[in-house]
């Protein structure tokens, strides 16, 4: 019996060994498959990153706008219609065609932009023009070396390092903020449009080139508008544009919002995507509270995110937000000696900071067409 037991034990050992080897083999196969899947994902990332640069160029050169108006055309005809160099146009079309953005007939060598794509890529599509967003990748890429250095010294990168920042920001503001003011943003506050028609005092903190205020000042002639921003460049351009329209109910001032000393001056304070990258966001919020009259209102648009990473796992543009933040929002705050809240400072922290600044009655809204922002309707504490 001892010999038989030995044989049985040996057979069991062999089966267990084969089982273990099979499991190891399956794990290796699964591991290899996971590597392949991730490799394919990375290739898609690189292709899409390349397309983002080409989409930005297509927007800036107005190629998308022209293609939307043309019948199917050759690269030569497109170049003639746009006044651009044919060789560059042809190479750009190669990227757009292989990337599935522009359609192409290989027999006639003609290209066209389908209507469903033009609806998201042309200036006529505002505020749904997503081609303008692609400009941010080039803006951020221009400071990559400085950001890499900042990973070591931790001091951040100042606004002055970002070429075209104010230009691109103004275009985005004109498209997303101005485009949504009348039908979406102002109606968040019942009666606000009527008050603006009657006449109130309003200020936009971090107004940039003043696109939103220029729109409001043109529509609500009885109200008085002020824009404050720390950039002399943007204030100069905002004042110049306001002068072109002859707007006597609007003025712009170069002011650091952290040092702003307005007191009981305004019925309405606006801040569009301006608080989270401040060097001193707590002081800015406190100054906004002091600038408001007792029955005033603070309407703040800021990034719609949670204050923790796991709360943003299903965010439709989570990686985009954290990238923009790392390479700009967080960094410019740190460069100014600030806390570097970042774009994803989140609703929880925003509500806490609003409360600490003296806003104990805050309502948070979202707009159906806006996947990026929250809108905070905040009333000052008594």
UniProtKB/TrEMBL annotation:
InterPro entries documented for this protein: Methyltranfer_dom, SAM-binding_MTase, SAM-dependent_MTases_sf, WH-like_DNA-bd_sf, WH_DNA-bd_sf, WHD_Rv2258c
Domain Methyltransferase: 197-357
Extent of the signal sequence: none
Domain of life: Bacteria
Stretches assigned to the S-adenosylmethionine-dependent methyltransferase Rv2258c-like winged HTH domain: 49-123
Name of the molecule in the record: Putative transcriptional regulatory protein
Organism from which the protein derives: Lacipirellula parvula
Source species taxonomy: Bacteria, Pseudomonadati, Planctomycetota, Planctomycetia, Pirellulales
